[in-house]
Amino acid sequence: MPRFDLSLPELREYRPQVTEPADFDDFWRRTLAEARRSPTEPRLTRQESPLTQVEVFDLVFPGFGGQPVHAWYLLPAGTTGRLPAMVEYNGYGGGRGLPHERLAWVTAGYAYLFMDTRGQGSVWGSGGDTPDPNGTGPSVPGFMTRGIESPHDHYYRRVYTDAVRAIDAIRTLDRVDPARVAVCGGSQGGGIALAAAGLTDGLAGVLPEVPFLCHFERAVGMTDEDPYQEIVRYLSVHRNRTEQTFRTLSYLDGVNFAARATAPALFSVGLLDPVCPPSTVFAAFNRYGGDAEIEVYPFNQHEGGGGHHWVRQAAWLEHVLS
Amino acid sequence: MPRFDLSLPELREYRPQVTEPADFDDFWRRTLAEARRSPTEPRLTRQESPLTQVEVFDLVFPGFGGQPVHAWYLLPAGTTGRLPAMVEYNGYGGGRGLPHERLAWVTAGYAYLFMDTRGQGSVWGSGGDTPDPNGTGPSVPGFMTRGIESPHDHYYRRVYTDAVRAIDAIRTLDRVDPARVAVCGGSQGGGIALAAAGLTDGLAGVLPEVPFLCHFERAVGMTDEDPYQEIVRYLSVHRNRTEQTFRTLSYLDGVNFAARATAPALFSVGLLDPVCPPSTVFAAFNRYGGDAEIEVYPFNQHEGGGGHHWVRQAAWLEHVLS
Amino acid sequence: MPRFDLSLPELREYRPQVTEPADFDDFWRRTLAEARRSPTEPRLTRQESPLTQVEVFDLVFPGFGGQPVHAWYLLPAGTTGRLPAMVEYNGYGGGRGLPHERLAWVTAGYAYLFMDTRGQGSVWGSGGDTPDPNGTGPSVPGFMTRGIESPHDHYYRRVYTDAVRAIDAIRTLDRVDPARVAVCGGSQGGGIALAAAGLTDGLAGVLPEVPFLCHFERAVGMTDEDPYQEIVRYLSVHRNRTEQTFRTLSYLDGVNFAARATAPALFSVGLLDPVCPPSTVFAAFNRYGGDAEIEVYPFNQHEGGGGHHWVRQAAWLEHVLS
Amino acid sequence: MPRFDLSLPELREYRPQVTEPADFDDFWRRTLAEARRSPTEPRLTRQESPLTQVEVFDLVFPGFGGQPVHAWYLLPAGTTGRLPAMVEYNGYGGGRGLPHERLAWVTAGYAYLFMDTRGQGSVWGSGGDTPDPNGTGPSVPGFMTRGIESPHDHYYRRVYTDAVRAIDAIRTLDRVDPARVAVCGGSQGGGIALAAAGLTDGLAGVLPEVPFLCHFERAVGMTDEDPYQEIVRYLSVHRNRTEQTFRTLSYLDGVNFAARATAPALFSVGLLDPVCPPSTVFAAFNRYGGDAEIEVYPFNQHEGGGGHHWVRQAAWLEHVLS
Amino acid sequence: MPRFDLSLPELREYRPQVTEPADFDDFWRRTLAEARRSPTEPRLTRQESPLTQVEVFDLVFPGFGGQPVHAWYLLPAGTTGRLPAMVEYNGYGGGRGLPHERLAWVTAGYAYLFMDTRGQGSVWGSGGDTPDPNGTGPSVPGFMTRGIESPHDHYYRRVYTDAVRAIDAIRTLDRVDPARVAVCGGSQGGGIALAAAGLTDGLAGVLPEVPFLCHFERAVGMTDEDPYQEIVRYLSVHRNRTEQTFRTLSYLDGVNFAARATAPALFSVGLLDPVCPPSTVFAAFNRYGGDAEIEVYPFNQHEGGGGHHWVRQAAWLEHVLS
Amino acid sequence: MPRFDLSLPELREYRPQVTEPADFDDFWRRTLAEARRSPTEPRLTRQESPLTQVEVFDLVFPGFGGQPVHAWYLLPAGTTGRLPAMVEYNGYGGGRGLPHERLAWVTAGYAYLFMDTRGQGSVWGSGGDTPDPNGTGPSVPGFMTRGIESPHDHYYRRVYTDAVRAIDAIRTLDRVDPARVAVCGGSQGGGIALAAAGLTDGLAGVLPEVPFLCHFERAVGMTDEDPYQEIVRYLSVHRNRTEQTFRTLSYLDGVNFAARATAPALFSVGLLDPVCPPSTVFAAFNRYGGDAEIEVYPFNQHEGGGGHHWVRQAAWLEHVLS
Question: Packing angle between helix D155-170 and helix D24-35, nearest 10 degrees?
C-alpha cells in the first residue's frame, strides 16, 4: 500500500469532529450496571501444560448479560504475592488460541489475562472457546453489522462490556495488584482497549496498537479493506440506513472512549496501514483524555511495530508502574 | 475457471457414497414437528407498489421455532380462483429485496412466494427483512459454520425448516391450489429447494439450479470458493473438529434430501462452476428419488443457464402441471 | 473501491469546461437526417412466451444507415388504448437477452421497448441479436475505439442514431402515446439515454443511472476500469493520436448532449463508482438543460441504487407524467 | 502457472481426433481463388529511417477481398540480387509497429516482410495501420468471435487469406527468391503461419512458435486465459450455439492446416504455457504433414524460447536452405 | 488452495526416485571438515531484557567458512545444571528477530537456540543480524538460485553448514546436555532441520514442520508459489541450464538428508499446502532413516498445525527424551 | 494505473529538496579512482552469429574492484573508421541476453555496447553472464537493499562504477570516436545512465527513459511497485534504520547525479507510470545540469514511449552529433 492518508505533520494536528450521542455516558452506565448484576468473581481451572515456567489457568468470567467468557490466565512460576497485571484483547477473527502462544508479558513478570472475543476465533490462529449467544438481523458476514440496527443490539456493546468485566474479574484475584492493571491489544484489540480505558477507572496503563474501531465516519469508505469495508457492503445494500447505521456506531467509536480515558497511554500507528488508516488512529490519539504518547512506524502497514513495539511497550510500562 | 472436475460421461455415472446418519429421518421429523406447533397461517399485508399488473403482499409466516419469516407474495392482477404456485429460495447472501425484482413467475400466471433467508440479505441486492435470533459459537464470517458444533444448533436446520414452513403457509391461502405447488432456487436456493423436496409431500415440481449444499465431503476442500471455503477456514483453525463438523453437515446434505424426494425435478449444472462443482450437483441428481432431468451448460460457471434456463423451466413446469 | 473522487459538496459545484466542437449540432443534424431517409415504421412479430400477463413482440426498426436493429416490445396484457412508454438502453456488453428478463416497467403499466446494442450482447446475460455491419481501423478489443479515427466512423455515432430511431419507431405504434415516451438506462444505457435526450424533442422524461460516456477528458486516465480504460490502452499504443482521439470523443460526450436536453430528468450516481466516476456524472448533471434531480448513493459503486432506484424512478415518472 | 497439461512423454504421443469438415479444402480453395482475383503485385514506398544498414519500405498488398494490407518490407543495405525471404505474422493484439523493432532476420541477411494483422495493433507495441472493413454480429471484445456464426464471415478467414496473399506478394519482388520463402510467427503468428503452410505450396520453411489457434475443441475451456477464453465467454452467453461455433472453428483449426503442410517445420512449445497449452501445440505438431522438429522449453510459459529460440531458428533455417 | 496433490492413501505410499549424486556424502564430509577447522566454541553476550523469567544471550558461532552467525540463546531463569536443548531454524525470509518472540520452548524448560539464517531477515518479522559475505552469479531475487551454477557455491551449502555448526556450538555449553539436543523448524526451517539431521550424529529428536527444500524434481514446476518458483523463473531465463541446476539441487535435497538421518522424528504436513506440496513432504518422510511419525492436517495450507502442533511436539519430545 | 501523481503543469515546476551528502563528490572521486587502478582496456572476443550485417563481440572490461563485467559490442558490418558510439544500460532484472536482441542502434550506424548488470539477468529475457562477487547483510530479495547499511557496500556503488568504466573501456577502442559517445537506458538503465552522466566528462548525449533510482525520499512509499517497494519492505522490518537507509541512498540518487551532468540530454516519462512515478523523473529532469528535453507520454505507464521514443531519440542524437 502506498502512502494514501494525511502527512505526519497533518496527522499530528488532526482533530476532526466526531459524532457523540447525548446519552453516550448514560447508555454505557446502564449497560455496565446491568452486567455487574452478575457476580464478578471468575472461575479458575488449572490447565495441564508443557510450560514448566508458567502456571496456566482457564479463567471464565461473566461478561455481557452474565454470559460466560473464556480467557487464559497465566502466572510466572515461582513467584508469590500480588503482581502487576496485563489484560490483552485480541485482533479481529482470532480466538484465545492456546496458552503457549502469548508468553511475553508473563515471562516479563506480569499476571496475564488474554480474553476470548465472543463468537470469534475461527478465521486464524488456534481457535476460540466463547460463543456469542445473541442473534442478529440481516448482516454482512463478519461482526461489524451484527445488530447494527441499534446500539442496544450491536455486537460490540457486548464485547466492550466483556472487556470491562475482564478487568473487574482480574482485580478480584489474590495474585493481582488491582491498582496496577494495564490493558493492551492490537487492531480490534486496540479498539477494545480504548473502550475499556474509557469505561474503567484506575487503570495503570493503556497500550492500543494500530487501533481499529475509531472514527467510523471517516474510516467507512476511506479504505476498502475489511473489517471497515463490511459496513460499506451493508450500506451498499441497505441504501436507506446510512443515518441509523452511523448513529449506532457513534456509541461504539473509540474516539469517544479516548476522550473519556484518563490512564497514561502508549499508542502505535503504521503510516501505510490500509486497515486502520493513520488518520483514524490519530483522531483517537489526539482526543485522548490522559497523558499519551504515540510511536509512529512510517513504513509499516497493519503489522505496525511488531516485536519492536513490544520492547517499547515493556519499557514504557515498567516506567509507568515505577 | 478452466475445466477442473470429472468429464460429462463420468459425471453422469457419479454415485459416491455420502454419509447418512442413522437418525436422519428422526432428526428432521422431530424438528418439523416442533416447528409445526406454531400456527401455520401467514399474515398478509398488501403493499403499495407501482406494479399495476401484480398484486403485492408482505407475507409473514412462522418459521423455525415459530420465529417470523418474511416473504413477498405476488399474484397476477386480474386473475381469480386457485392458481398453481411457485415458492423460490434465494442465493447466498441475498435477501428478498423488493417486489418488482422477480416478476417472471407471477407474469407467467403463478402465485409466487419469494422467501427471505433469515439473517441474510446484506451482501448483494436490495436487502432482507428477517433476523436470525439465534446466536452461535465461534464461527467463520458467513453462515456455514454458525452452530457447526451440532446439527441441532446449525443455521441450516433453521433455514430448511423455514423452507418447509413456507410451503405449509402458501398451501393455506385461498388463491393457491395446494396440489400444484412447486419449489425452485439457484445455488443456496437450489440446495434449500432440495431440502424442501426431501421434507415435504406432494410437491408438483422441484427446480434446483446449480444447487449448493450438496456432497460436503467432496465439496469442502475441492474448491476454494466461498461458501464451501468457509468450512475449510473453520477446519484450518479448529484442527481437531473434522469428524464433528462433517457429522453435523451430514444432517444437512442435499444428497440425502434428494434421495428422499419424490416429486418430478429439473436440475441445472454449469460444467465450469467453481462454486458448486458439477460433481457435487450430479451426486445429488444421480441420487434423486423422483423423476429427474438435468440441463447441462458446458461453458458456464456458477451463473448456469441464466435466462435461458428459466425458459426451459417454464416449459417443463407447464408440461408437468398439465 | 475507497472514496477517490471529489467530495459531495465539490461534486454539486463541479462544472468543468468540456470541449464542444463548433459543428457538433450540424454533425448530428446531418447524421439523423441521413438515418431518417429510411422508413421509420418498425416490423413487429408476436413471440410465443410463457408470460401470460404480457404481450411480447420482436420489434425490428431501421437504425443507423437503415440497418435493422432488434428490440423487445412488451405490452401489459389486458390493456387497451395508448399507453405511456419507456425506451431502455442497455449496459456495456449486454444484449437484449430474453423477454422475461426485464418486466418491471411493463408490469407497472408501460409499453416497454428494450433496444439491442449493435454488435454487443456476448459478454454477459442471454445474448443479443443485432450485428454491427461496419468495420473498423486498428482498435482495442471492445467498442470504445471502433472507428476512433473520426467521429464519422465511430461506433457510438451508429448507436446514438439507433437510439433516436428507436424513439421515432415506438412513436409510430398505435398502443403508444407519442407525447409520453421516456428513456432510461444504466451505465452505457444512461449515456445513450443522455444522447437520445439531447437529440430528440418532446421526451416526457430522461432517467440516466450512473451514466457512462460523459466527460471523456477527465474520465480517460482517471479510472483504470473498463470501458474508459480501453481508450487509455489505445492511446498508450497510438501515442501520437491523443488530440485526434479526444476530438472524435467530443462529438460523443454526454456532457454536450446533456446541455441540449430539455425534458425533465432523474439521474443517479454512486459515490464509490470506479467505472463511471461521480465527477463525470455530475459534469453532465450540472450541465443538464432541463429540470433535473440526482439521487446520490454514497456507499455504492457501479451498481448504484439498484432496485431501490427503480422504485424512486417509478414514483418520479408517475409524478412527471401526471 | 504450475504444470497442468499432459506429461512430455504423453504429449509426444498425443494424436487426438480433431473435427475436419468435409468441404474444408473446397472452402479454402474458393476463398483463395476469390482473393486472387485482385492483382497480386504490392505497392512499395521507401521510408525515411535512421537505419543506415537497412532499406525500409512500406509494402501494401491486396489481402482478403482485395482489401489493402500493410507490411514492413526490409532489405539488408548493400546487398544485391535475390535473397531468401522471411514472412512473419504477429501475435494477438499487436500491429506491425515501427520498422526498427524487428531487425534480426534482415540483419541475418534475409528479405523480411512483417505483416499487419487487420484491425489489430492497439493493445501493445507501437500500433498498426490496417483496418478490418468487415463488421460482425454480436461478439465478445476481441477478434475470436467476430463473425463466429459462419466460417464464411469469421475474422480469421480474412486473416489467413491475407497471410497467403502476403506470400504471393513477396514472391513477385525482384529482390526475393520465390523458392526460398519461409514463414514464422509466435502465438497467433504461429497459428497464422500454420494456416499459410497448409494453404501455400513451395515454402522453404515453417517456424511456428508456441502456436495459437490449434485444437479448439480441447483448448476452449481447458485454459481460462485469453484469447481462447473469448470463445468460452461467447458460449457462456450464447448457450445454444456450441455446435455452430465449433463447426465454424473447425474451418480455422491449425491442426487441419498442419495436416496439409509439406514444407519442413520447426515448432516450439512451453510446457507451462497457459495461453496455448502444450497439448494443443503437440496436436498440430504430431499431425504435421512435412518433416518437423519441435523445441521443448520445460519451464517456460507463453514466452517460449525467446531469444534462445531465434538462434535455434536461424541455424535451422540456414541448414534447411543450404 | 483446493486439493491439488495426491490423496492421503497415495501420499502414504509415495516413494519416488530422487537423484542422489555419487559423491553426496563425500561432498558434505569435506564441507563440514573444512568448516570445523574454525574453533567451535560460541561467543555469549548477556542481553538486557524485560524478560525476568528468562536469561537472554546473543550467541555468535562460527558457521560456514568460520563466518560469524548470530543466534538467540535462552535459558529458563532459576534453573541450574544441564538442560535438554532445542535448536530452531527459521522460515524463508525471516531473521532471528527479538528474544521475546519465541518463548515456548524455553518456557517449557529447554535451553533454546534460534539461529539466524545468513543474509535473510528483511522480509517479515523483526530483522536479522547475520550477513552472507559470499557473492553470486546472475540470480533470481531471493536465495534459491544464489550460486546455483555449482553445489560448491550454492547458498544452502553455507546455510546447512551453519545449521550443523550451531549444534556443534550448543553442545559445548555447560548448561546444555549434549546428548539431549533436538532440532526443529517450519518450512525452510524444516528443510534445514532435515539437513542437520542427515549430517549430525546423536540428535535426540528432529521435528520438521511442513518442510521445504525436499524433492526438487517434483516441486519445481508443480507449484507456482515462491520460493520453489524462484527456480522456475531462473530456468525460464537460463533455458539451457536445466540439467546443471538440478544437479546442484540434488546435493541439497531434503530427501537425501532424510535417508541418512537416524534420530527419531516428528513431521507435519498440510494437505492443501501450495508452498510445500504434501507429496514433497511425504517424499522425505517416507525415506526417513530413523523412527518417524507424521501429523497430517487435512484442511491446512502452509500454516500447517500452528499452535496445535507445538503442543503435539512438546508431548512427543518429552516422551522421546524420557 | 489511473493518474496518481502531480499534474503536468505541477510536474514541470517540481523542484523538491533532495538530500545531498557533503562528501558526495569525494565519495565518488575516491570510488572511481580506486576502480581505475585496474587496466582499462577491454578484452574483445569475436562471436559466431547468424547476423551477417553486424560484427559481434563479447567485450569484457574491468568494472568495480577490477571485477570482470561482460557486454555485447556490435559494429555495423562493412563500415570502417571511428564511429559514434552508444552505451546502453539495462532494466532491472535483465541481463545482456543475446546479441541479436538489440539491433536498432548498430543498424543506425553506431558502435554499440550493451552492458550486463552484475548479478542480474535471471528474471526476464535471455540471461546474463556477470556475477556480483560481493556478499550482503540481511537484505530483501532483489538488489535494492544489498549492502544498504552503508554507501560503501551498496550494490549500486558497484554498478555505477561499472557503468563509468564501460565508457572508459569503449573509448579505448579503435573503431570508436571517444568524443561521440552517448549513454542510454530505460528504467534502471536510465538511472544508471544518469549516474554515468554525472560521473563522466565529455559525453555527447544522455538519453534516460523513464529513469528509476531518482528521488528516493519521495519514491519510497509513494508507489507500492517493485523495485522501490523493496526498500519499503526492508524498512518495515528494520524499523529503526530509516535514517541510515536514506543516508545510503542519498549517495546513489539520480537527482544528485543529474545536477552534476553537463552533456545534452533527452528524457522520457510516462504520466501513468506506477514504477517510476513522474514526479521522481521530473525531480531529476528539472535539476539536470546540461541542456535537457523531456518527452511526455500522457497515457503510458512504465513502458513509456516504446518504439516511438527510439525514433525520437535517433533523430535527437543525430541532431546533437551533427
Answer: 60
C-alpha E61/C-alpha F175 separation (Å) is 55
Segments making up each domain of chain A, as ranges: 8-321
Q: What is the ipTM of this complex?
A: 0.97
Note the pLDDT tens digit of each residue in C47-80.
999 999 999 999 999 999 999 999 999 999 999 9
Shortest CA distance from D235: residue in chain C: C122
All three cell numbers of B35, joined, read 416447528
F252: number of Cβ within 10 Å = 22
What's the Cα-to-Cα distance from F274 to each of E273, F4, F279, rounded to whole Å? Answer: 33, 8, 11
Contact E53 A107 (CB under 8 A): yes
Residue C285's pLDDT band, with cuts at 50, 70 and 90, is very high
In the three-class reduction of DSSP (H, G, I as helix; E, B as strand; rest coil), residue A197 is classed as helix
How buried is residue F251: exposed, middle or buried, by Cβ count under 10 Å (0-12/13-18/19+)?
Answer: buried
Q: Residue B12: helix, strand or coil by DSSP?
A: helix
Q: Name every chain E residue with its beta carbon within 8 A of the beta carbon of A125.
A: 306-307
Residues C204 and C181: beta-carbon distance below 8 Å: yes
Q: Radius of gyration over alpha carbons of chain A, in Å?
A: 18
Average pLDDT over residues E249-255: 98
Cα angle B289-B295-B299, degrees, rounded to a multiple of 5: 135
D187 is catalytic: yes
pLDDT at C1 over 90: no
CA distance B167 to B178: 9
* Residue in F50, F126, F314 nearest the CB of D314: F50
Could B137 and A119 be called an inter-chain contact, meaning their C-beta atoms sit closer than 8 Å?
A: yes
Shortest Cα–Cα distance, B49 to chain C (Å)? 8
Q: What is the pLDDT of residues D126-147, one digit of tens each?
A: 999 999 999 998 899 999 999 9
Answer yes or no: are the C-beta atoms of A5 and A35 closer than 8 Å: no
Cis-peptide, bond into residue F227, ω within 30° of zero: yes
Pairing label, strands F68-76, F54-62: antiparallel
Is there a catalytic annotation at residue D273? yes
Average pLDDT on C284-303 reads 98
Instruction: Give residues with Cβ within 8 angstroms of B305, minimum separation 6.
Output: B209, B268, B270, B295, B297, B312, D239
In sequence order, what E strands does chain E have?
43-46, 54-62, 68-76, 83-89, 111-115, 132-136, 176-186, 205-209, 265-270, 292-297
Q: How far apart are CA E195 and CA D128, in angstroms?
A: 57
Pairing between β-strand A68-76 and β-strand A83-89 as defined by DSSP bridges: unpaired
Please report, for residues D70, D94, F45, the alpha-carbon distance to residue D64 in angstroms, rounded to integers and kept in the order given: 12, 19, 49
| Closest among A92, A262, A85 to A183, alpha carbons compared | A85
CB of B32 within 8 A of CB of B161? Answer: yes
- Annotated binding residues of E for substrate, written as ranges, equal 92
- F294: which 3 cell numbers? 523531456
The CA distance from D249 to D243, in Å, is 10
CATH 3.40.50.300 matches F8-321? no
The answer to whether B and D touch (≥3 CB pairs < 8 Å) is yes
Cross-strand partners of C76: C54
